[in-house]
Every structure is written in structure tokens, then in C-alpha cells.
Amino acid sequence: DAGVIQSPRHEVTEMGQEVTLRCKPISGHNSLFWYRQTMMRGLELLIYFNNNVPIDDSGMPEDRFSAKMPNASFSTLKIQPSEPRDSAVYFCASSLADSRNQPQHFGDGTRLSIL
Amino acid sequence: GESVGLHLPTLSVQEGDNSIINCAYSNSASDYFIWYKQESGKGPQFIIDIRSNMDKRQGQRVTVLLNKTVKHLSLQIAATQPGDSAVYFCAERGGSNYKLTFGKGTLLTVNP
Q1: Which of A91, A92, A96, B44 is 20 to 30 A from residue A7's alpha carbon, by CA?
Q2: 8 Å CB contact between B94 and B32
Q3: Following CA atoms A108, B91, B63, B71 in sequence, which dihedral angle do they give, to the nearest 10 degrees?
Q4: With bands split at pLDDT 50, 70 and 90, how would you rate the model's confidence at A40?
């Protein structure tokens, strides 16, 4: 079975550039989450979508970050303009929200380096 | 403390031994808990979960224990293997929303 698919796996770019991270959730899952992982802060929830609608974006660091989910099988996280402090591993996760007791399943992440 | 972990603790065991990884959580309203395993270069992988109306749940070679009185969660791995070497995270979900709160994790190293 295909899990959560993220692309690219690695991204290196210069500060000021726009970065777009992509995620394909597990088919049939209706909840999608974007996380950021750093050594200092661990795993932080950035935004949560349910049925393609953003429910909680309180973790989005600032206006430079935006996320969209145009359909049930695709989501993007965009950083514009990027800054060195955005360097981290970004994970997408999905779950089936028919009940609250369903685990989130993670992709293998995008390792982002902003120079 | 603080919703699970502060700095990354480490646990080193010999192959074949049993491992116990501990986690303290802070939200008494949390009603669902999950253990994840994260290998280098990969995303967190679901291992086992437990609801707050249970105090023990077993999987294949793994057991999760929940003590709500002291807000403590543990993951027991039987007959630990080199392939079990990874960072293990516990996560809690509060009683009012879908948000998972993760700890900083525990690094398990299995020596052959």
C-alpha cells in the first residue's frame, strides 16, 4: 500500500527564493497535517486540514508560510521568501478522521536547507 | 514533563534484551496516545497506540503501558534487535481536538 508521498526529498536553495513542498496523503484519508522537525524544537504542527479545509493554522510561523489543499489527494506548503532559519525537515501526515482515535501516518519528509 | 520530554535521552541495550522506553505527559485531558519509531532519514512510523480507557495494549514484540494516575506512558520492546535502533517518540492527543503533541524522543541503540 502506498503511504504518504512527499516531494522533493531534499531541497537546497538560497534565501529569498520561493520553496514549494508537496504531499500526497494516503488514499481515503481525510485529515492532513504539515509538521516541521528541528533538533531544537522537535516536531511542531504547522497546519491541519480536514476534508481539504484548513482547521488549525496556529502553528504556521508567519505570513511567509502558506498551505493549500486543492483536493483530497494533494497539498502544498509554500515558503516565500525563504530564510535560513526555515531550514528543517518538513513532514506531511494523514489520517482517517472518522473517529478521533486514528493514528497519523507520516511521509519520509522533505529536508530543506536555505543558504 | 511539559508535554513529553525536553532533551533527547538515550537508551543502549544488548541485542536480545528487553527495552523499556518511558514518557511523561502533562495533559490530564489527553485521551489517546501513540508511539512512533523514527529511523534516520525517514518519517515517524506508527508502532502502537492506546486509548485512555485502557492501561495496557500488546502488539508484536511491543507492549504499551499507560498509567494515568502519574501521567506516564511506556513502550516495552521484547527481544530487542539491531533493527529496532531508532528514535522513539510518544505523542498525546488532548481531549478536545485532533492535535498531537510529541515529545523530543528517546534514542535507542541496540548493540549486537
Answers
A1: A96
A2: no
A3: 170
A4: confident
Residues contacting A63, CB < 8 A, separation 6+:
none
A47 contact partners, CB below 8 Å, separation of at least 6: A33, A34, A54, A56, A57, A59, A60, A67, A77
Q: Which of A5, A31, A91, A106 has the most B C-beta neighbours within 10 Å, making it the best mutation to test the interface with B?
A: A106
B6 phi/psi in degrees, rounded to 5: -130, -70
Q: What is the distance between the terminal CA atoms of chain B, rounded to a whole angstrom?
A: 32
Mean pLDDT within A86-95: 97
Q: Which of B98, B101, B104, B107 to mutate to test the interface with A (most CBs of A within 10 A)?
A: B98
Which residues are within 8 A (CB) of A62 and not within 5 positions of it... i.e. 6 or more apart? Answer: none
Cβ neighbors of B77 (< 8 A, separation 6 or more) are B18, B19, B20, B21, B61, B62, B84, B108
Q: Does A30 touch chain B (CB under 8 A)?
A: no
Nearest to A24 by CA among A68, A67, A74: A74
Q: What is the pLDDT of residues B82-91, one digit of tens each?
A: 999 999 999 9
Mean pLDDT of B91-104: 81
Positive/negative CA dihedral, B25, B18, B82, B13: positive
